[in-house]
Amino acid sequence: MSVFGETVLMGAEMDSVSYHGLESFECTICDNVVVVLDSNDTSIFDKESVRKALGLSTDADKTMAIAALTKCPKPGNDKGSSITFTVPSDNNSIRNITLCLVPTACSRNNTPSKSHSVGQLIKSNRGNGDITIVLLPSNDDWITPQAVQAVKQFPLYCEKKIFRDNLNNNKTNKINLIVNYITGSSELRNMGILCDNTRGCCKLVDMPPNVSKRQWNEANVATVATVADVATVCTCDCNCDRGCSSAISISCVCVCVYVCVYVCLTSSFFTHYTITLHYITLHWLTATATATTTTTVTTQVLNCTTYVKVAEKIAKDFMNNGHNVKLTVIKGKELDEQGFGGLFGVGKASEHPPALVVLSYYPNDTDIDSNSNTNTKPESICMVGKGIVYDTGGLSIKVPPNMAGMKADMGGSAAVLMAFKSIVESGIITDRPIHGLLCIAENSVDERATRPDDIHIMLSGKSVEVNNTDAEGRLVLGDG
Q1: pTM for the complete prediction?
Q2: What angle do CA 155, 145, 208 make, to 5 degrees?
């Protein structure tokens, strides 16, 4: 079952990611292995579990690994290094093993986990085909941030012909991610949820706003994984690596969504740390061809209408599975009638009407929104995300090249949606309601568009005089 809904985002992932614990993994070691370390301490190869994960079956293999790690170039302050060696494989072929060292220092662009470098190193050494990735940080708190960056190098959306051809030939790559958690543990499960939905968040951001047609073989719709554990979402501009190649190069824009993970204090695994969700560029997820009949299908597209359907599908699936999730959607002229002047004013010029989507989760029937005494109940958590599916700037239109990449202006709401999904799936928050608000609109241009000098009345009752229609974010978030 597709997490997004087959009528909205149909497809099958070309790269299938599975998660395994170091001490008891059951996956087959691929002929391409990438290992991420934060020191060149060769004693790591004394552990039988590590040698097994790397496919080092003999003492000679271990000796080669020690020699390679010793010769690995010293990483820089902000850039990692790597070295590759080969050993015989179990299937009479050659196994390539790449040892990667993360940077030695923290800078303004990274974190103690050096997760940004992990993404760069895996991207540079992933190759083609199946791959085994082994993460061996010295601090277990760094495993999840590194894992998130690792899986982001295998995007769910791509318009490249090679991607479509591989799917048409039913070719799926397997990515086995091995970390120092116990197989079957809540830590490994929650890490997998976070990683999968992070890929889903990137997919939403990567999808283009336009609709096109193409001839394609009919196919069965397969499962798409997705997610993030969070409580607070913010956005910032920064210089970072988007983590993948793209069909359309967008070099001038790179925005990160920082998802601050906060969970119950009783959790032994999650603490409080920051994970970077980079906006990767165009990656397309299409259906695996299983029939020879040719039909015209619509390319995946993210506009206000389809985005609302994505949220509705996720909420409906939770409801059908017995989760106490509620959904409220206010869209189009209903926004204006109910006083959401900011959100309606920004999106009213688009062919696809703006919408406010509210997802609410009441674990264990907690409901502080009721009329009961709330003094003894914890406060609810509310996440509000900016969902501008495309930002032309409005009548204060952006000039080249500033408009390129503005499909990513809905990244905050994508993080909120996948954060909400993560919290419900993992069950890590049980004592308070969780709300996710998606302020969805397209800042477009036609005769209905907001003009500089227009005045909007917000839901709070405050009046806002517009002097720049490209300052739409504060208007939609203000109504949220």
Answers
A1: 0.79
A2: 25
